[in-house]
Amino acid sequence: MPHLPVDCIVCGTCTADILVKPVALSAPIGGGRLFHVDPIDVTTGGIVCNSGIAMRRLGMRVAAAAIVGDDVWGGVVRRHLDAEGVATQAVEAHPTLATSSTAVLIDPGGERSFAHHVGVCGALDAAYLRRQEAHFAQARFALVGYFGLLPALEPTIGEAVAFLRGLGCQVALETGGSGGALAAIAPGLPHVDLYVPSLDEAVHQTGLADPRAIIDCYRTHGAGGIVGVKLGSRGTLLSPRAGEFLEIPCIPAPGPVADTTGAGDSLLAGLITGILRGMPLDQAGRLGAATAACCVTGVGATAGLRSFDETMRLV
User: Fold this and answer.
1) CA torsion 146→151→153→154, rounded to 10°?
2) Confidence (pLDDT) at 27
């Protein structure tokens, strides 16, 4: 790959996250009652913050490309990214729309539910990509997400990804929410270098349950790059090319599991880092698994992340 100022620019959803734990999610919440929780924390979320900070911790040169509101939460997002060393020159402030925000309710076992306000992320569109063309042109890789939560960008996803590829970036797409419809994402698949949705999102898109059949389905819709499916505790299935599959095992967490928020974004960050470092795909996949294993040891999407050397010890 060419030597450029930025290894990866992460574009799309970024949020202010309000973390509330423990919350017994198996029972209804409400009824006008008061219930006690641990100290409530405020951090950041969304792929721009989650994957961007994870790659920065792994030693990559990272830039953020996003829109926030001209509000308190927008300031929280900017300060957090700046503190982590993620470049924020391509982060725009919208004069009227609110920063995306999420209340993350975490049960005692680490599982979480989200109360989410899309806010200004819903306004990120192809015109934004064109405004930030100079920043994308300085990056070796562009990670764009979450598909399914970017309503203004998704109708032109094929053109958007082709535009980024034309600037010299390799491009990865990531899904969120339900993952959106297969018909909506299909125009982008022929232009994407990396696409690894979660199993739930992939099942929603394709109607298929078998991971290999899911990957084959994406291939029939033009996906020619690396395709895979994140399988949670079963690991990750990756396909470097049609008919070839690599089973990447899940790596045990190096400590008690505190919160699974951001594990999928961290896996993707480690995988892309490995690819950018020139690792064989199976080793890059294991770096992704190790990054996710570190992630779940901290509350929130970034508190448990470690340096490249520390993460590689798990690999």
Assistant:
1) 80
2) 79
